[in-house]
Amino acid sequence: MSLKLYVHPLSQPARALLLFCRANSIPFQEHVVDLIKGEHKREEYKKVNPFQKVPVISHDGFLLTESVAILRYLSRTFSVPDHWYPKESELQARIDAYMAWQHLNLRSYGSMYFQTGYVIPRTFKQPVNEQKLSKFEKGLETALDEITDIWLKDGPFIGGGKQISVADLLAVTEMEQPGMAGYDVKTYNKRITEYMNTVREILQPHYDQIHSECHKIQEKALKKA
């Protein structure tokens, strides 16, 4: 069985998929789509993903887009521990609830903070729009408060889980993203700090390997902040 991952190191959901596969020793071929050079906009890539984004998987010729769908598919298809995406209905529902929530909350505001504070200024050679950045910062902090007070209220992992799940992979990779624009989520509050450190340690050495490029950019950005 051949599994191919189309990814880029600056893509949060792509990093979540890489973490899942490496943590579970799932063999795969990694194909880096160079977003900086615009490879995702080329016609040949449109045949892989008509939305022209990453990540995508090709599994024995079966193409699948959307990170949440991919994580569910990989959890069902490969032999992985049940805690990643539990079969028990209530536990699975909590994970599904987070994955539905995150799109318009943590992912939305964290991504836009990153785009506004890092991508757009470098791509178009223009100063940061501080008004927009402030707006996205407020939304990001609201999402972090909700993660602290709701999603992590009943246990060490998302949704009150006692073990790590695919929801945690999506959460931590999103939390890493604003750091490249100078906002260190890891120090937002004690609970977030503990949570990110716990997930990072569980996923070592893969976590630091997969985030190496992000962390280099973060280090430079945080020195300037």
TrEMBL record:
The record's section on Pfam families has: GST_N
Alphabetized CDD domains for the sequence: GST_C_Theta (cd03183), GST_N_Theta (cd03050)
Superkingdom of the organism of origin: Eukaryota
Could you tell me what reaction this enzyme catalyses? Answer: RX + glutathione = an S-substituted glutathione + a halide anion + H(+)
Alphabetized, the UniProt keywords read: Transferase
Occurrences of domain GST N-terminal (ranges): 1-82
One Gene Ontology term of the molecular function aspect: glutathione transferase activity
Known InterPro entries for this protein?
A: Glutathione-S-Trfase_C_sf, Glutathione_S-Trfase, Glutathione_S-Trfase_N, GST_C_Theta, GST_N_Theta, GST_Theta, Thioredoxin-like_sf
What processes in GO biological process is this protein linked to?
Answer: glutathione metabolic process
| Similarity-based family | Belongs to the GST superfamily. Theta family.
Q: What is this protein called?
A: Glutathione S-transferase theta-1
